[in-house]
UniProtKB/TrEMBL annotation:
This is Aminotransferase. NCBIfam families: PRK07036.1. It comes from the Bacteria. Keywords: Aminotransferase, Pyridoxal phosphate, Transferase. One of its GO terms (molecular function) is pyridoxal phosphate binding. Signal peptide: none annotated. SUPFAM superfamilies: PLP-dependent transferases. Belongs to the class-III pyridoxal-phosphate-dependent aminotransferase family. Its cofactor is pyridoxal 5'-phosphate. Pfam families: Aminotran_3 (PF00202).
Amino acid sequence: MTNGTSPDLLNEWDRNHQIHPWAAMDAWQESDYHPIESAEGIYLWDADGKRYIDGPGGMWCVNIGYGRKDMAAAIAEQVIRLPYTSPWTTTTDPSTILAKKIADLAPGDLNNVFFTTGGSTAVDTALRTMHFMNNALGRPDKKIVIAREKGYHGSTYLASTVTGKERDKSRFDVEKRLVRFLPDVNPYKRPDGMSVEDWCDAKVADLEDMIAEVGPDKIGAFIAEPILCSGGVIIPPEGYHKRTLEICRKHDILYISDEVVTAFGRLGHWFASEDVFGIVPDIITCAKGLTSGYLPLGACIISDSVMERMTGPDENVLFSNGYTYSAHPVCCVAALKNIEIMEEERILEHTRAITPHFQSRLHALEKFPIVGDLRGMGLLGCIEGRPDTPGTSLAAERKLGALLDEACDKRGLLVRPLINMAVFSPPLIITEAQVDEMFVLLEDA
Ligand code: PLP
């Protein structure tokens, strides 16, 4: 593929011509991105042949692991049979069968699937669905979205507007009229002496107060990740999702559960909303684990009751939402094969079985003084630096992510640094011995 181009030249072309996501603009042509050449299972190999454990599982997505020849064969077969056809005027077996499969796996009356190109476009579709529905119902003012600080929902204009990570908004103008943010739900941030139950009451009250302040007739949706993943694997207190859903139902506010990370196995279930947190939302967005990252695909899953309210009094109003690559047949085949592999190899059961070991190795890191908080669920984990670590400057603590990243890299482990945190979401096929291998490198780092 590289036609014998030297690694140095490739590096130069990458620096001079490729803009990577979240590039630091003062130095974008100086950064060296790690060239990765191949992968198998939970391991990656770089251009020098050095092996790494993939701690973040790509970007929380490579659930079935790398190098699956059965996946490659299914994809190749579909490319040869039919690589593309327009979703506006035609349909294909893979997209039809996948829509039915997702409807069967999704909770409650979430039976209607709109395929997108990834997570951001799934969130975009969810928010446009809410706009469309409220206009159809003659409630054009009911469109404000309540989102949460530290929430991440994507990089399109709409999805980034409802994203609550301040750092992700630098030099972008977002349409602030469309959104209000609730304060941090992280139990680690609760005042000294406050119980988790009281913290939950306070966080639920934040939502109630905001609805009262803005007015329920102006709020169209509440969007929440079951666990705030990119925000640092923040697990809301027990009961939070159920109680916030009840409040939304009371005020006819759509509950959008953003399961881009949590769906398709990360917590040991197809969807976390119902199986882990006991809620059936109005809309679920998913992507990533849907194809295990082999090809890009997302889905916005909409309940029957929302669909029924999309019609409105006028005839022939089109839901003009969609992408050239909506329901792409090759991507849909990848998703079907991914689900088949997960079923045949009982990957959900494996994830549930290995979770206690992964979490106990994670929590054993509390012996290190620089560690302030350790949290996780399923095969998700986060290490957060302690602000007042003895013998360490505040600057060092704030850079915990970058420091760990560098030290782990040397030892053959990739982690995902996030300021003063590092997060983990390894491929779900990881074995107990490989979990140990990963934590031995991490402890050493
Ligand atoms: N929603 C959540 C919860 C995410 O974590 C992400 C990406 O990390 C997105 C949406 C955006 O997905 P994508 O990058 O596929 O557009």
